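<goal> How does this chain fold?
<sample>
Here is the protein in question

***
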Amino acid sequence: MASLPASLKEIRKTKGLTQARLAEILEISPRVYNRWEKGTATPYLDTVIQIADIFNVELDELVGRKEPKKDFVIHNHRLFELVQQIDHLPDEDQKALIILLDSLIKKNKLEQLVSG
C-alpha cells in the first residue's frame, strides 16, 4: 500500500492537476503542498478530508489503505464535455458550481424520500 505522500501524487496526477493548481484550490502555498508530496510535512486531518473531497476519493484511498479507483464514468456526453472544462473556471465559479450541484443532488434525494 502507498503512503499518503505517494497517494497524493498518484491521485493528483490521475486527476490531471498540477501541484500549483491543487495548492491554489486548497488556498495554500505550492511550497507547502510540495512538502506533503515529498513527505517532509503532513497536512492536518481537515485538509486531508478536503483533498479527498476534491479528488472524490475515500479517505482510505487517499492515505494508502486502499487502492485508488482509476476512473469514474460520466454517461451523459454533454455533461462529460462540461466537466472537462470545469477546472479552467475561476475558483469562485467552481465554488458556485459545487453549491449548485450539491443543492440539486440533495433536492433529488429529498424528492425520492418523499415519493418513496
In short: The two ends are 41 Å apart (CA to CA). The mean pLDDT is 88.
